[in-house]
Amino acid sequence: MSKEYDVEQLLHFYQQMFRIRAFEEKTNELYQRAIMPGLAHLYIGEEAVAVGVCEALRKDDYITSTHRGHGHCLAKGASFDRMFAELLGKHPGYCHGKGGSMHIADPDSGNLGANAIVGGSAGIATGAALSMKMQGLDRVVVCFFGEGALNEGLVYESMNMAQLWKLPVIYCCENNLYNEYTPYQETTAGTFLGRPAAFGMNAVEVDGQDVLAVYEAAGQVIERARKGEGPSFLLCNTYRFYGHHVGDIDRSYYRSKEEELYWMTERDPLKLLANWMLDRKLTDSNVFTQIENEIRAEVEAAVQFAINAPYPPKEEVDQHVYA
Amino acid sequence: MSTPNAVREITFGQAVNEAIAEEMRRDPRVFMIGEDIAEAGTTFKVLKGLVEEFGKERIIDSPIAEAGITGIGVGAAMTGMRPIVDIMFGDFITLAMDQLVNQAAKIHYMSGGKWSVPMVVRTTLGATRRSAAQHSQSLHAWLCHIPGLKVIAPSTPYDAKGLLKSAIRDNSPVVTFEDKMMFQLKGPVPEGEYTIPLGVADIKRVGKDITLVGTSSMVHVALEAAKILAEIGIEAEVVDPRTLKPLDTETLINSAKKTSRAIVIDEGHLSYGVTAEIASIIADGAFYYLDAPVKRLGAMDVPIPFSPALEDLTVPTPAQVVEMAKTLCGRV
Amino acid sequence: MATEVFMPALGIAQDTGKLLEWLVQEGEKVTKGQPIMVIETDKTTVEIEAPASGVLANVRAQPGEDVPVGQVIAHILAEGEALPAPTPPQAQTQPSIPSAEPPTKLISPVAARLAAEKGIDIQKVPSSRDRVTKEDVLAYLAAQPQTQKASPPRVLASPKARRLAQEAGIAFGALHGSGPDGAILAADVLQAIQNRVPPTPVAPQPPVAAQPFAASRMWKTMAKRMAESWQTVPHFFLESEVNASALLAWREQLRARGHNEVTITDLLLKLTALALRQHPRLNASWIGEDIVLHQEINLGLAVMVEEGLLVPVIHKADQLGVLEIAARRQKLIAGAQANRLSLEEMSGGTFTLSNLGMFGVSAFSAIINPPEAGILAIGTIEEKVIAQQGQMMVQPRLRLTLSLDHRVVDGARGAQFLQTLKGLIEEPLRSLD
């Protein structure tokens, strides 16, 4: 660790990660109890990436997110109640129930929207960065995507222009090892870092389970972008604890239980941070329990809010087709 | 200096150029991005002079990356700019379809109205330039099919300027299709400021015996046919929707109610195209006023061939319109 | 707390899962993540892991059984934990459809959700098996009366020719068609009309006109809205007489504390809002083919002004204290009389009160102010002799008449609301319950 952290900040990191963990565990339950329609792609296991990056951003910076986007939205400042309401298709949800789990968008927290087309937001993020540069604003845009998006052409068209024009955008690749149900090695030629290298783009690889490492790496590339020194490619190596979506229970044909167990026990970003703090006697375990209890209570209240909230009225169906 | 609103004859291309220049002067958020749009002024030279006035920061020469520049347009539009994305040939919108259909068209709705995409995509349609199958298509129907997108197809310099200015000021994504064979077409355009609202059709010729609905350059095919029909006593009314989405259904239906007969002419392929939509709207809205079936003329359902001898067979002509109109009016 | 083991939903709109096998027997220890059962869905057979560590208890499903998704089929007890009190199987998975009746039949969670999404009352859906399933809801939705019309004999004619002939009263049989395949065209009909002997026109006699009274625009609006409401909303009425002693005492207490502005209307506004909170079904609208429950309780108050009737709105009345309501009411009435109410103050109402008590009206029935589902008409407080426990006594009595839209509320629900309101009026302290 190169940086000095005060305990408050470290606990805040833990809190932010646990917010995502608790939200996603409840989402899993809502889905399995048949209360939530559609599909749910859980972010559990990858919390350190969203939190490490978003903590290094300002509130007025932008992000784009993915189908596995709850973590990004929460880390950037979304609230539980309106998130759950959106997941259940209810009217008070972030998008009045018209977006759902895969399309949470929130201008107030700088969330340009979660995108269910793999790699589909690369252009949007790059365009937002061009927009910032043209308007003389020093805001930075982070484009989150999984390693599966690295085989989509749009990503490269966008990276090319970003590097060409020194745009303030970070391409944050969350390498969770699997393109849906396929190990990335079966789909991806060459190396991940060979891709930004082809454009002469600054690239950093980081342990995506270590929130402090992500925070520091993100901080560097974000400040670089903010100063007008151009885009970066931030490769975060991480792991999806659950399936591609909630229904993906039998995963034995693409990965082993042992592998999952290893990541869950040895590489859990929450445990890693907690143990790091406990080893240095920065706090005691009661503090974590207290944080967790408070957040779980908040989750319960938010879920009740969402369950009791009304569905959108029929008149909502043809609203907002055009601005 | 000429007097305000003096009317000059300028080309379709000049009208487009004026619309963009005026809007860029009026609104610093407007910028253009596209392939060879700066010094080259595009393949069709329509944008000549813009980079000299507005600089390379606002007239941005892009890599050849249609999906990328369309996506950039979407992101810039969401965050305070008003981009005009130039897609050189209409055929190339296929490369940008995800960004147009899944992103630009959906973002306002999916976000419950929180984000909007005030972007214009400028591209072309039309055959007979001997450019073969990948540079001659008229694919506007593809985008008309998508809720969330607006589509305009001007037929005259006057409409081109007024509609494009409205499109640039619109808060939704608008795609404008310009027939690449019309850039040199001259027409009257008043000096000074004016706009034409989207979604309002224009009756280009008044008649009582048959309605000819034409889009883009097919308006001129319809006008030519109307001239020939007048010689044999058939007075055709020529209606130009100008905006294909949203469509001014009222004007189309009312004209057909008045004349009892209608032919729809559009340069897209006949099957599942713009003509089918407009014909169906007329058949539905004017049914009890129709004295003959609503007929359609579009590009043949073949890839556009290169050889002039073949290509000219694929697009509607005034002669075809005249023959069809005579049949409908019982004048054969 | 004991951890629930439930049949998980693993696919979109999956209704049930089949329990194939318990891998752990009741009473055995499990650790979190250990496979405990094998289930079969329409797609696949999978092992389900224990959601917590402890002892498997309270196993309620047997191998081979089809279980609705979301239904609890066992518990995992940590050391020293006891089973939770039994709850009806649907209670925790039922999405929020406010319903006055207790659930009387088993409903699968997916069916309940689907019904809520489609805005239909799940209680009305007949079940084909031991419980209401997704299929039952879909079948209920699809069941719509079909009508058929006999087709007339076929005559070729253009649509325009048909219309002209019908307007002119000309039968096709006599006509010769000049179109393709002998189809009758407009010109053929016009020819036939010309050939016909024109009928003698009879000039209509205008009635002797009464002198019209120049109604104001506001009056016209009211006339139009009331007529529309009366013609389209199926009204029904419920009447109740309540003991107003506590209400009067309440007002006296407020006045004793210097709050002279508070009226009986204000107290009734407050209590009505609280009663509506308990009966959200009355705070709703019939929109399209659906009942839409409103989140906010916004009470309209009918106010008579020179040009007609205005209904300004007290927004979120259930969240306001009586003094706040009184202040708003005064401001709104002043605004109404000065004709300077804002659009906000005039819109958003979800239920209305109309009080004619000050005119000595004993009771009356009011017309609903759409799209609201109900209006409460308040009469005057009169001292009456009543019998109580065999004794005659004099008591101030207040008559309430509730008008309701039968598309939104039925008699029983309306009655329950009135009962709640009566209770609150007779014992205002109940509002603190």
Fold and architecture overview:
The complex is a heterotrimer of chains A (323), B (332) and C (433). With 323 residues, chain A is an alpha/beta fold. Helices cover 44% and strands 12% of the residues of chain A. The mean pLDDT of chain A is 96. Chain B is an alpha/beta fold and 332 residues long. Chain B has 2 domains: 8-190, Rossmann fold (3-Layer(aba) Sandwich); 202-328, Rossmann fold (3-Layer(aba) Sandwich), CATH 3.40.50. Chain B contains 12 helices and 14 strands. In chain B, the strands form 3 sheets. Chain B has a 7-stranded mixed β-sheet with strand order 3-2-4-5-7-6-12, with helices on both faces. In chain B, strands 9-11-10-13-14 form a 5-stranded mixed β-sheet, sandwiched between helices. Chain B has a two-stranded antiparallel sheet with strand order 1-8. Among the domains of chain C are: 3-77, Beta Barrel (OB fold (Dihydrolipoamide Acetyltransferase, E2P)); 217-432, Chloramphenicol acetyltransferase-like domain (Chloramphenicol Acetyltransferase, 2-Layer Sandwich). In chain C, strand 13 and strand 14 (308-310) form a beta hairpin. The longest helix of chain C has 16 residues, at 217-232. Chain C is flat. Chain A binds chain B through residues 62, 64, 93-99, 103, 105-107, 112-113, 115, 117, 120-132, 134-135, 141, 153-154, 157-158, 160-161, 164, 319-323, and chain B through 31, 57-58, 62-63, 65, 67-81, 83, 98-99, 102-103, 107-118, 147-148, 150, 170-172.
Would you summarize the structure shown here?
The complex is a heterotrimer of chains A (323), B (332) and C (433). Chain A has 323 residues and is α/β, with parallel strands linked by helices.
Q: Specify Rg of chain C, calculated over alpha carbons.
A: 33 Å
Q: What's the SSE pattern of chain A?
A: HHEHHEHEHEEEHEHEHHH
CATH class of the domain at 217-432 in chain C: Alpha Beta
CATH superfamily of chain A: Thiamin diphosphate (ThDP)-binding fold, Pyr/PP domains
Q: What does the overall shape of chain A look like?
A: globular
